[in-house]
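Sample 3 of the quickstart, ligand ribulose-5-phosphate:
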Amino acid sequence: MSVNVKQLAAEKAVEYVQDGMKVGLGTGSTAYWAIRKLGERVREGLNITAVATSQASEDQARELGIPLVAFGEIDHLDLTIDGADELDSRLQLIKGGGGALLREKIVAMGSTRMIVVADESKAVNTLGKFPLPVEIVPFAWEWTVAKLEKLGCRPELRRSGDKLYRTDNGNYIADCHFGAIASAPVLAEQLQGISGVVDHGLFIGIASMAIIGKQDGSIEIIEGETDL
Ligand SMILES: O=C(CO)[C@H](O)[C@H](O)COP(=O)(O)O
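Result:
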């Protein structure tokens, strides 16, 4: 019988949620399982408040009866559980495959702890095989894309059917094919220096733990230096 590795990792992460916590809800098919499990625990009496990182996660949480609040209305979150498109052993991540990177970063950075949940295919030695999502403003996007290209990648504007994809914030995503990224912190700084860039999918020094589900039914936990 095949193991649902995403569910395995996500449900392990939910064990870290305690009564009274303010919890950030990630986005994607792995975060989905964490939200589902949280819904189960809320039905059993767990008392939490949650902030969602996308409309999809908000809809799921609402349906499950998880109490939601707008992030702007609270001063911090205790724990965020979210997926990743790639992660390395130093807990550097590429995120944004689902287009929610900006809200995901705001929420993760406002959390005391971020637990990344992933299946083993996401764990890599060097980030960059997965094209790096970069959220850019629609105004003069051609200029921004040209600047991204100068950093040594092949940027591809994400599409949704015959239209350009729009994030929950109304922006575009350029999926940047870099290949192996020699230094994620250096690249992050270069991206932040481009004026049309809103944010990018490199999460560095943000995750405090990764829980990786494996096909043999086991779980690998990577603890980061930023963990408390
Ligand atoms: O960053 C994300 C969305 O913006 C997701 O967490 C990432 O794409 C992983 O998704 P999945 O768990 O479906 O593989």
